[in-house]
Amino acid sequence: MQDSRSEPQPNDSSVPTPRARPLGLDVVMIAILMAAALWMLGRTPWCQCGEYSPWSWDINSQHNSQHLIDPYFFTHVLHGVLFFAALWPLRHRLSDGIRLKLAVVFEAAWEILENTPLIIERYRATTISLDYYGDSIANSVFDLLACITGYAIASRLRWTYSLALLIVVEVVLLATIRDSLLLNVIMLVWPSDAILQWQSG
C-alpha cells in the first residue's frame, strides 16, 4: 500500500481563487444605479437655468439643489459621519468595505426617496423650501460623494472630534441659512410653525 504522504499534493497556486471586486467599482455602480433611478423619476441632469457654475449658495433660488454644491452639501457630509457611527457596532461582523458600501446604499436610497413626488411635496408644504422641485442628478451624485467624504473623515477621527465636527457644521448652517440637518429632519417628520416662522424671518 502506497504511503499517502508520498502522493503528489495539489499545487495551491494552480487553483483559481475568486477575486474580490474593487470597492471603488461597487461605489461607482451604486452611483450609476441611483442616477438611473433619478432619471426615471424625471430628474434633470443639471440646473435648467443653463448656468454652469459648480455651486449655488442661495437656498431660496431656482439654483438650490441644482448645481454640484450648495449649503445642503454639508448636511450630506454629516450623513456620512452618522452612518459611520451607526455601523461602527457591526465592525466585528462586517468588514470596513462592506460597511462603507452599506452607507453608500443608504445614502443612494435616501437620494431616490427624497426625489419622489411624495417627499418633494412634503418639503414644499412643511419647510422653507417653497421653490424645491427636486434635485438635479448632478447634485445628487455630489451629495453621495459628500456622504462618502463624511464617512471617510469619521473613520479617521476619534468620536469626540466627529461629534465636534457635527456640532460645528450644524451651528454654521443655522447661522448662515437658518437650516440644518436636525431642523431638516424635524420639519420633515414633525413640522413646527415656530421653527418655520423663525426660518422665514
**Could you give a short account of the major beta sheet?**
none
From the spread of the alpha carbons, the general shape counts as globular
Measured by DSSP, the beta-strand proportion falls in under 5%
Radius of gyration, whole Å: 22 Å
The average pLDDT value, as a whole number, equals 90
Give the % helix. 55-70%
Please provide the ordered H/E string of secondary-structure elements. HHHHHHHH
Distance between the termini: 94 Å
Low-confidence stretches: 1-6
Q: Can you walk me through this structure?
A:
- With 201 residues, the protein is mainly alpha-helical.
- The protein is 59% helix and 0% strand.
- Helix 2 crosses helix 3.
- It is globular and about 50 Å long.
- It starts with 22 loop residues before the first helix and ends with a helix.
State the main characteristics.
0% strand, mainly alpha, 59% helix
Secondary structure topology:
Blueprint lengths: L22 H18 L32 H15 L8 H19 L2 H10 L10 H20 L2 H19 L3 H9 L3 H8 L1
Could you give a quick summary of the protein structure above?
This protein is an all-alpha fold and 201 residues long. It has 8 helices and no strands. The chain has helices at residues 23-40, 73-87, 96-114, 117-126, 137-156, 159-177, 181-189, 193-200.
